[in-house]
Amino acid sequence: MSKSSRVAQNYIPKVKLALKRNGFPSQRAFATEMGMCRNTIGNFVNGRPVQHNYFVEISDKLGLDWQAIAYIEESLPGETDIVPNTPPNPSEGNHQNSNIYTNVNILENLVEALKQATQASEAALYTAQRTLDAMENLIEQLKQGV
Q1: Tens digits of per-residue pLDDT, 78-137?
Q2: Beta carbons within 8 Å of 17's beta carbon, 6+ residues apart
Q3: Contact call for residues 34 and 41 (beta carbons, < 8 A)
Q4: Which residues have CB under 8 Å from 52's CB, separation 6+?
Q5: Distance between CA atoms of 98 and 100, rounded to whole angstroms?
Q6: Roughly what angle, to the nearest 10 degrees, separates helices 125-143 and 52-61?
Q7: For the whole model, what pTM was predicted?
Q8: Cα–Cα distance between 125 and 118 in angstroms, integer?
């Protein structure tokens, strides 16, 4: 599942003020500085979802605590992101599913290795989290057959 985050409604004025306080006359100027699409910045500033790694990066650049300004959505009871771990049977002849399963396993092993590596170095945590987010997104796409 691709992780996205959004600014809580009550923090939107604070975000807009942070843009000005940091010397950005417009969202376009800020997007250029960040090397991001103007729509991504607009979504962030207006409380619409953006990829989590962008959310953290934008918050940091504006001097905002991303955890404090993030909208936290409550999960419904029984709602889960757990994917059944029954692999497709490669002998059943579905070569595409077999390749997807192999790719998912490789990515899941890399995710686990990154998680373990970041326990040793907090400096690597930010970069590793961005990589984890991208990899988890790819895993979800592979599972959906995209």
Answers
A1: 444 444 444 444 444 555 555 666 777 777 777 776 766 655 555 556 666 677 777 777
A2: none
A3: yes
A4: 3, 4, 5, 133
A5: 5
A6: 150
A7: 0.51
A8: 5
